Each structure stands twice: as structure tokens, then as C-alpha cells.
Amino acid sequence: MLSTAIKEKLIQIVGNQNFQDSKASQLVYSFDATPQFQTLPDAIVSPHNTGEISEIVKICNEYKIPIVPRGSGTNLSAGTTPVEGGIVLLFKHMNQILEIDEENLTITTQPGVITLDLMNRVEAKGLFYPPDPSSMKISQIGGNINENSGGLRGLKYGVTRDYVMGLEIVMPNGDIIRTGGKLAKDVAGYDLTRLFVGSEGTLGIITEATLKLLPMPKAKKTILALYEDLDAAAQTVSKIIANRIIPITLEFLDQKTIQAVEDFAKIGLPTDVKAVLLIEQDGEPETVEKDIEKIAELCKQNHAVEVKIAASEEEADALRTARRSALSALARLKPTTILEDATVPRSEIAKMVSAINQIAEKYDVEICTFGHAGDGNLHPTCLTDVRNEEEIERVEKAFEEIFKKAVELGGTITGEHGVGAMKAPYLHLKLGEAGIAAMYGIKQAFDQNNIMNPGKIFTKSTRKRVVVSES
Amino acid sequence: MLSTAIKEKLIQIVGNQNFQDSKASQLVYSFDATPQFQTLPDAIVSPHNTGEISEIVKICNEYKIPIVPRGSGTNLSAGTTPVEGGIVLLFKHMNQILEIDEENLTITTQPGVITLDLMNRVEAKGLFYPPDPSSMKISQIGGNINENSGGLRGLKYGVTRDYVMGLEIVMPNGDIIRTGGKLAKDVAGYDLTRLFVGSEGTLGIITEATLKLLPMPKAKKTILALYEDLDAAAQTVSKIIANRIIPITLEFLDQKTIQAVEDFAKIGLPTDVKAVLLIEQDGEPETVEKDIEKIAELCKQNHAVEVKIAASEEEADALRTARRSALSALARLKPTTILEDATVPRSEIAKMVSAINQIAEKYDVEICTFGHAGDGNLHPTCLTDVRNEEEIERVEKAFEEIFKKAVELGGTITGEHGVGAMKAPYLHLKLGEAGIAAMYGIKQAFDQNNIMNPGKIFTKSTRKRVVVSES
């Protein structure tokens, strides 16, 4: 609990109405989108600007009070849960787009802007911000940067990291630094910009960002390919790339996911096939036309039982929306849905999907798989019930085996969800102790008092799905 | 000087023929491509593999012996000069391409491979490694990674950093770590991969890299646009981007550079115009055709006095080669050529070029300017004579003013050459003391004994163009 003196100091900075510590507000910010992971903060603070954040950080650093910067809390790794109490920092007053620079093709924004709003604003000018995490309708851009969010367009356009050109950061000692800029090239020292992208709020607080924009592609087309056989779908993915075509999107859904999505979205998806690929290409109209024809041909050559090219943008949009609803659709089926994001090199997709199925069988748990096949980023999703402790134990074991298999295939324990509190016990699988030691060295160098989002990335405790702390 | 005991330990690791400490060999590795910057190493060591490097590093860490990893020494910031003595580490035995993976579109390579050889090897398979530093014919890929090298294609394709997917690194304590992988998405902890790219050998030794490849674009076209007026050329650059066209290359040469290049390359460049833009586009044939037509139109609208589209690939190649020879051409004119790379946002190119000309006049020094206008990365190049101490002092003052101006315009002190020893005294202009402190924190966390390429990035000594140390 915060002392009265500290509470007063914080109120002096942000004003009475921007400091909350009622039980009700503590509960609201005690969890994020991660199932069944709950810990209470001491208070919620909503500063107006970078200067206020710097003052707050200085106080927290002096009194060793944890700070959890939080966007909309859509992350799935318990990355924004206040596991050691302290204050949750909100960006509701720092939600302005500061500039769209059409000459340098950049946007400069505060962290609290909703991702989709940012996309719409740049698209209105014929520009394009590609990273599209599934939560983009509610996620904040600051959260995307802290998590290095991915999305459906990662195959062709990369992830959030590839679009962050410069940052303003409040360091854990309260110092304000600026990294990068509107610069395609900048080698003045270490790349702090990309170090902070994906650092999950553990190294400092991002208070402003300059992002790279692209010209909006002129055309887009969408294909749905249906398969009776998982391997054939995975083969198609490899063949498309081997033919030197990089589609914008190359999504995979297994039968159970298709059934759940169709049940939910009712857009006429076939529910009797074993796998579906949703493929999109964008670019110049002629190129898109050529690529889509070639892709359709490759799907057929690789034993797709049916290939449908979306006839209109409405039809394409319905397919995309259906794909984006996969998690919501699955979440309706059982009380608890655990979505993971083991990722492998693209060539290993078939092996990984069949390993997931074998592991699910071995531990007698229900796992559906969908995800970004083009970039090897799969979302094995377990339908379970957290109240069934015995089953949850089997689920945990199954996921541990899935992570080990992913790393064995040259992959990683998390492609786009982050480590947070949930994946921390598995980090050594990917990095080894020496790799973790190197990262921890950076954490200690920046944040001696461990105030920035403590208990994330480096914690070694075994993961617990139900925690209620009153720290 | 190394003690006999240490010398014997190193010889035991690499063998007699891979340890050199004769005066002659010390002299060979006492400088890099940076003019007039020379310091002697104690020895030159050429290991065969990562294991040997780890053993060498452990000894150096124990006895606090500086290690300077060195590719072909083509850098221009004195980044590979052994300013504190110690050993220079060569990669001549680690010069193999380990794998080209056509399914995942990656190449895995040892650091000692020549950049152009690597490019040719992937192009033979219809693939494309875009970063093309001017020194690519002799530079090593490991050096490119350590320096985050840029090149002419940066505008559309980015820089070396954008292609490094995974690294094997020997840390300053001898630990071997692996970062990233053949993974489009990986958020397992901090982004060590990009932290090491551009860290100039100060954080560890890169012993293997996995790089991203693209499908080879099918077509390419080249335009030369001539201007009587600098501003018109700069305006054209902005207008092309504002028209949502991102060319692969958008190079600028001022009159003095054109004259020197034509004198050197004799390909019939006009020497009576004030500025030239060399513009290239690649992609699908139809798109290239359309873009090039539009670009030619924009050049004319913005007062180009002549616009030539290269009639053949041979003609285009001659133009590219001429541009790449700019430094060599200028270097023939005076005993000393100092090439800098102040970089600004693309929109500020006109202001920066005219500021450079004003500053050159103010200090009565001869500065030619060419560079990558599309990404704001200019190369103001001073033709001088290092034996004329009074002039060199004016040159130094002029460059300091140029760096300050670049930062004032939202730019940086170095776009692609690195900080090394030469730019260290100016780093604070871009980063401020708090930014440098953050970077130095990382350096200290990784390299407590400061053995990795010491005296680079963080040194505060004023720069000296003639140094001969016998440490």
C-alpha cells in the first residue's frame, strides 16, 4: 500500500481526479486479457504529459514503487498485470496524434492512441501503417510498441519494430531521452529505439513515437483455399514462397477453428474440410492479379479441394473479419481459452502442427490451431476450464512440450505475445542462461531498483493461472 | 605489449601461423579506411571458429587486453583502429556461407564473407540481399553488421539492420549466445539481435549471422536528371515521395562531384550542370515502367533541364558504377579526403545542402556533396591536406558546424558510417548526456573490463587526425 505521503506527492503531480486507489478501480486494473491472472495494484495514475511522467518516475524510483505502464491491456502474456503491486500508469490523457508528415512519410503520436484510429487517420491520406494485431480495434499504439505487436500482415510487412523510427522515453531514473528520428539511416550509437520496442515496459516509459508509413497499396485480393489434409495446406505455404511470391497474408485455420468461426460469424465457411488457408496479396493491380492467379494455381497443384477468389471487397472483408474473430469464436466453447503463440521457421509449419496434435492427444486436452502460417507464427489454443485443476495441470504440461518442440524446430516460445509473467518460466528454452544473463544485464543497468514492470520476463517462478495478491 | 605468457596462450589456441606481432603486420592493421588515423595493435590473431574466439576472449578478459574485431577495414570512422592497442581479430578463416535456405528465404553466413560474393551467391538463386554499401566489393558481411552499413538502396529497402534475423555472438566474458533465428516474429525478451547490429564491435564478437533475403525484383530502370539549380533537385526528391513513389535509389551529386566523377570514369556525364539526380526503380516490369514515366514527368515539372532514361542495363550500370566511384574520384584531387555522413529528414535536404555550402564558404574550405538524397543521408566531402594544420583546424570547425546543423534539422551526426573514434566527440549533439549514459550502461553491463574495441563511441577526447601510438 502507498503511504499517505507518497499518495499526496502523486496527487500533487496529476491532480485528484487522476489518482485512483479505490478497491473498485484496483480491481479493474488487476488483470489484462490473459485468462485467470489477477494481481491488485495499489493505485492507478493518469498523467497528462512527459514532464508529469518524469516526476512520477522519480518518486517511484526513490521509494522503490513498481510502475506498470498500461495501454488497453489486450496483451495475452500477463504483461500488464501489477504482479508486485505499485501503480498502473494510464495514457488516457496522452492520446493525440501529433503530426502526419507526408514528405517524410512518418506519423508522430502519443502512446494512448487506439491502433485502428491511427491506421484510419493515415489511410485517409493515402498512407499505410501495416502492423495489424488482432486487438487493433481496442489496443493502444504505445502497448503495441512495448509488446512489438505482430499481426496478419507480418509476412510481407514485418512487425511493429519495423515501423518505429524514433521514441521519447522516460528512463527509470526520470531522465527523458529521445532516440532515432525521421531518419531512414542513423547509426549514432546503439539502437536504443529497437531495444525499447518489445521491452514490455521493463526498461522505461515510452511517451512519444515516430512511426514509418508506406504509400497505400493500390489493390488487394483475397483467396480462400480448402484442404482435406493438413500437410497439403502446409506444403502450399512453402510452395508459394518458393515461387518467389510474398503475399501480404497467409493464414491457416484447422477444422475445429473453422467450425467455431463459422458458428460465430455465419459467413458460409465450409466446416467439413481439415484446413483452410486465407491468402491475400496487395500492390499494383496488375501484379496482384498475376500473383493471385499463380497462388490459386499453386493451391490446386498442392491438392486444395477448392479455391475461392473473393468476388468483392465486402466478401474479402467478411473473410478477414472471420479470421480475426477466431479467438472470440473459440472462447465461447469452454469456460477458459488459453491462446499461445509458439513460432517456427515457415518450413517447419507442417511438423509443428502435427506435433501440436500429437501432444494434445498425449495429454488428452483440446487444442485448436490457427495462425499466421506464412511467418510460422501459430496460435495453438486450448479450450479448457480453469476450475478443473487436474486438467489445467495437463494443459500446462502440453504447452511446455509445445514450446520445447518449437525451439527444437528452430523456433521460439513467443512470436508476438511477449514473455510477460506467463512465459518467463520458459524463456531459458529459447535463450539459454547466458542469453538471459545478457538481457538481465541491460535491465539492471537501466533500472537498478527494479521499479519498471517488475516480475516480467525475468521472473523464475513457475507460472500460476490464479493469483490474487493484495500487495 | 603482450607478455610472453599471453602470447603463448594465444598461439596455443590459433596456431603459430595465425598469430602475428611483427612490426610489419602491426603496421598493416594500424589503420582502416579513415584518413590519417593510425594506432598500432600488439598482435593480429586469426581464429578458425567460434570456440577458438571464446577461448581468446576469456584470456583477453582475464588480462584486460583490448580486442578489435576487424573485417576488411573499410569503415570511415576509425571504428577498427586499435586505439588502445591489444589484438586485432581477423575472420579470414571464417569466410564460409553456411546455408542458403530457399524455403525460409534466409542465408546463414560466417562473418568473413565478402559482401559482394554473398550478394552474387544469392542472386544466382533468384534471391536478393539489398544492403549495398559502396565498399561492398571488399567489405566483409561481419563488418557490415557491426557497422549497420547502409548503401544506395536504403530508401526502399532499408539498411543492414533490417536484414539481420539472428546472430551467434561471443560475449565479452567468453559466453556464446544465439539470438533470433529464421523467424519473422520473435519477442522472446529484448531485441539483442538489433542491439548488436551497429554496436561497432564494442559489445561482443559476432561469429555467425542469419540474414533475410527477398525475391529478386524482375525489372529495374534508371534515370538521370540534370539541374541548373540545387533547390529544384531537392524539390524533385520531395515531390517523388509525395507522389507515393518510393524508388530504390535516389542519389544526389553536386557539380564538383559530377566533374570529378566524369574526369575519373569518363562515361559522358554533363559537367556543366549544378546538380544531378540518379534515380532507379525496381519491381514488376509494368510497375517499373509506370513509376519511371511518372518520375521523369516530376523531374521535368520541377525544372530538370534534361532527363535521360538509361537505354540499356549496360548504360544504367555505368551510371551506378560512376556514382559508386564518387569517393575515389574526389580522393584523386587533393592529398586528403574527409568524407562525412551528416543525415537529415528527407524534407530538409535542400536546407542542409545550402547550409553545407555556406559553412564551407565561412571556413574557406572545399566541400563537395553527394549522397543518398532519398533517405537524407548526405556525404559532404572535404578535399584538403592533412599536412596543412591550419587548414585542418578550419575543416574540423566546419564539420562540427555541419553536424550541429544536421541535428538542428532533426537529423543525426552519422547516417551509415558509425561513431567509431572519429565521431565520438560529437555524439552528445544527437543523444544528450542522458542518452549516452543509457548506452554506456549497456556497455558496462556487457563488458565490465572494457576489452571490446575500447576507445570507440564513448571516448570523450577531442578528435585527432594524426595519432601514432605504440601501446
TrEMBL record, chains A, B:
Instruction: Pinpoint the FAD-binding PCMH-type domain residues.
Output: 37-216
Query: Any idea which UniProt keywords this protein has?
Result: FAD, Flavoprotein, Oxidoreductase
Give the matching Pfam families: FAD-oxidase_C, FAD_binding_4
Q: Does the keyword Amino-acid biosynthesis apply?
A: no
Give the GO molecular function terms: (S)-2-hydroxy-acid oxidase activity; FAD binding
Q: Which GO terms describe its cellular component?
A: glycolate oxidase complex
Matching InterPro entries:
FAD-bd_oxidored_4_C, FAD-bd_PCMH, FAD-bd_PCMH-like_sf, FAD-bd_PCMH_sub2, FAD-linked_Oxase-like_C, FAD-linked_OxidoTrans_Type4, GlcD, Oxid_FAD_bind_N
Write down the required cofactor(s): FAD
- UniProt cross-references to PANTHER family, sorted A to Z: GLYCOLATE OXIDASE SUBUNIT GLCD
So what family is this one in?
Belongs to the FAD-binding oxidoreductase/transferase type 4 family.
Q: What is this protein called?
A: Glycolate oxidase subunit GlcD
Q: Which organism is it from?
A: Aquibacillus halophilus
Q: What is the lineage of its organism?
A: Bacteria, Bacillati, Bacillota, Bacilli, Bacillales
Q: Provide the gene name from the record.
A: glcD
